């Protein structure tokens, strides 16, 4: 088995064990770990560089972090180590402990009653105030983790005597040259003093815009992933304050900053993308920012994107990055996909609830729908419970995102009905029904049931607009397997699930084959199970139900019970304190720590209940808005009905009048028909002329391109020929000079020969008496001179031949150049003729249309 197969098997085993911690899954996980821990494979695992190995190492590190914190109490152990070495803060062991604690406590709740936490906080504050550069960054980051969303730690720090001096030190750190130090400092100040006078002065209207600009700059151009992560957390915490959220709505550079933040989604790394989406979802919780986010996400693209295609100009440039994450194949990108779906649900709900929907939003919806429908595919039951849960969650989010599109204008409704098919919905419902009746855990069953009901609700909205959708919808409602998910929805404690189940039950009750009796028995069984579960007194691990897509429910009973339990806990603490005064028991401090831990837990529950109440209030406001829209639409429909009634009466009255005019209109219709035939013939002629014009235009463009190309070739040839001509001229002049020199030399030699001949004739008589040897010498001299004369004559002939050949080449090149110039003149004449023809044709077309 190769390393890749081992990694995939180990990832699957980890996901199965997370979903269901059974002995079988534990044994399977242990077997896969033992298989991978072979020395050769383990070495190859850490030497691989790919998304699969990175995803595995991330899963292992996350699991290790959770186990070290929850099971082995590593936080208190490291705090004790730091306390023992508090006198040497610059020691390597202390620095390593601080770094491990910073990673271990990120997004983790730490109770201040835990062992050595008070000493750890004192150590951090002391070293921050001493401004020890070796440990100040780690101390600030760790203290930011401890203070965030931790009321008990915040109260403890505020109760210290040197807290004002500590605030002054933190404010001085805001001018630090390291952006990471500035972000850590702002996070601590926001956690400790946001609702106090110091925080009001620090984050007032004068300074908040600079803070926004600083945080956005760090998010976009930060020092790294750690700084960007803490910057996002800081901005999310600031948005929880209504006053700061209102400041952000009036921030003039908000749209530009959000556009730059959305640009970070173009990377393939899921971790920074998840933080960016977390920030955008936090912004969606602020009513004043949702409309601004819609303008940024759904704004049209620039000219470069418009030139990419016919419809490219209507697409949203920033929204395109969100759509890409929906179908991204990156490992670990599933959570980003769900975050994008939730974000788009919020934004589309905002923009579709307006009086008029912008064209850019409709274009974005048209681009988004194919990707959304593609997410509905790919359900494979053989890939385990984790894959099933992810796919069902994805289906629920997609249907929740699609349903608002069907409740607005006809434009969005037609877009959805054109993209979706009855066969797709039917196959999804069949697969989800099979999942509901397979041997899956209860949590998977509930997720599948919710996805199934959402799909059926989508089919109910589309049954009048998609072919065969109504038949498929009613057929699925009469299936016996629908009882289980429908009974789970009707007995759920989530309001939206109950409402969905009731609406489907209202549609299914009149059907002849609907299993009403079986549904009643299933509801009774579910109620009995819930009652028996409530009566159990033994502590057990409760099966957690998957939260709905939009948290809009909260129970007032649980809030009242929580408040009663808190009051009883306070009374017990007071009683314990009285006993402590009376009886100084050594174990009272431990009991108080336990009570403080429970009090913190109850406070966290109370905060969650408060969040649920706020979400419910938000949902109620949205419901009121929808009711107002419904009343407005109903009033419009009634007014249109009354208007149509009056128009009907007018039509009846005018019908009699029109009957008299009908006979006269028949003749006019005949004349109009003849005119129509003439217009059709004229239109056909115009069509032919237009086609001829298009053909001539294409031929003109082709000929123009060809002429330009030929012109460039001729110009290049002309330049090369000109250079050759200049070279030939230079060669000709050089040869001419050489020929002149040779001719002059030849004439000199001829003169010498003539003079020698004359001398020879004169002295011929004189030398007759010379010795025979001298006579032979003279004859040899004459022969040598004759040979030199012959060589000179031959060189002269060769030079003449070369000159004649060069003159011939020059004449040929001039002839060729003249031919090229003639062709160029012909092409120019043809182009001018085509220009004149096209301009004349266009004028004739204009005259015909007039």
TrEMBL record:
InterPro entries: ARM-like, ARM-type_fold, CIP2A, CIP2A_N. Residues 58-535 form the CIP2A N-terminal domain. Transmembrane segments: none annotated. Residues 620-830 form a coiled coil. Keywords: Coiled coil. SUPFAM superfamilies: ARM repeat. Gene3D superfamilies: Leucine-rich Repeat Variant (1.25.10.10). This is Cellular inhibitor of PP2A. It comes from Haplochromis burtoni. The lineage of its organism: Eukaryota, Metazoa, Chordata, Craniata, Vertebrata.
